[in-house]
Amino acid sequence: MNSNAMTRGLLFLSLVLTGVPGNTAVICAFLSVAYHEGRLSTADAIVLHLTSANLMVVCVRCLLEVLATFEIHNVFDDTGCKAVIFVYRSSRSLSIWLTFLLSAYQCLSVAPPGSRWAAARAMLAQYLAFIFLALWLINTSMSAAPLLFAVGARNDSRLLQNGINVEFCFLSFPSKLSRDTNGAAQVGRDVVPMALMATASLVLLAFLYRHSRQVKGLRGGGARQGPSAERRAAVTVVTLVTLYLLFYGVDNGLWVYTLTVPQTLGSSLISDLRIFFSSLYAAISPIVIVISNRKVNKQLNCGKEPKTFSDAVQPSD
């Protein structure tokens, strides 16, 4: 095994060792909450679904890449490539849309009772199962290209025409137009929820900032207070959105570059970087969830329960 393959394998292994135990622990914590309390709040149900999608990303893509890289087990024949890339793309895009859904719900959570936005929040909670189903159907249908064009890597010059090299597999499109059309659809599917999630978070931050100014005015010239719940909530929102925009922004930037080159790249380096950055959030997101969700923190016995983002903006429902 050459040094490049070794480095690649170790990087993906680090994601597996971080993401699989972390996401599994968070899922188990939420299931324990559901068992003891009899239900999950809407925000917690969204986070549970998000964590499950992230676990699929790490297991299906990173774990199988590690097994193949270290020649333990290789599932990347034609059928394996179709299945792995399809499930990976579906769960990856589902993760993005669920993060937007969480941001939108938290944004609606600060709406005053009796307003139209509060009614929209109640409707979202009421039809959450149907929203989950719609997101699954939309994202799986938009990820169907690998089922048609993914093949196992082999010495075939035709794969270098209108194809995309993903190390153990190729996405071999019949024409440059079909490749570019599929690529544009993937970028649009990612950019739209990322823009909406950023907008929802900015609205929430604006509300929290105005509220903190009002609280500061009521306190008047009193003693200096410690960091407020609103400030901690703002930091958590900024952290989540910044991480998503950073990792998935790099991913989409590399994807656009891949589409602009006139011929299929002989190396899978660009694709490897895309997979690594898009999987990086799935691997480290459990840390953010444990820190910012009091219920998970309590179930995992991580010490004193913090007053966090969920406490500041999550309504009871």
Please outline the helices and strands:
Elements lengths: L2 H35 L4 H28 L8 H32 L6 H11 L1 H14 L3 H5 E3 L10 E3 L3 E4 L3 H44 L9 H32 L8 H24 L1 H6 L9 H5 L4
Antiparallel strand pairs: 1-3, 2-3
Please summarize what this structure is:
The chain is mostly helical and 317 residues long. The protein contains eleven helices and three strands, in the order H-H-H-H-H-H-E-E-E-H-H-H-H-H. Strands 1-3-2 form a three-stranded antiparallel β-sheet.
Mean pLDDT: 79
Fraction of residues in H or I helices: over 70%
Strand content range: under 5%
Distance between the termini: 55 Å
Tell me about the largest β-sheet. 3 strands, antiparallel
Tally of individual helices: 11
The helix/strand series, from N terminus to C terminus, equals HHHHHHEEEHHHHH
Enumerate the strands of the largest sheet in spatial order, edge to edge or round the barrel: 1-3-2
Name the poorly predicted regions. 221-227, 305-316
Q: How would you sum up the global shape?
A: globular
Radius of gyration, Cα only, in angstroms? 22 Å
Look at the helices and sheets and give the structural class: mainly alpha
DSSP summary, beta strand count = 3
Explain this structure to me?
By secondary structure, this protein is mainly alpha-helical. The chain is 74% helix and 3% strand. It contains 11 helices and 3 strands, in the order ααααααβββααααα. A 3-stranded antiparallel beta sheet has the order 1-3-2. A hairpin with a 3-residue loop joins strand 2 and strand 3. Helix 1 runs parallel beside helix 9. The longest helix is centred in the middle third of the chain and has 44 residues. The termini are far apart.
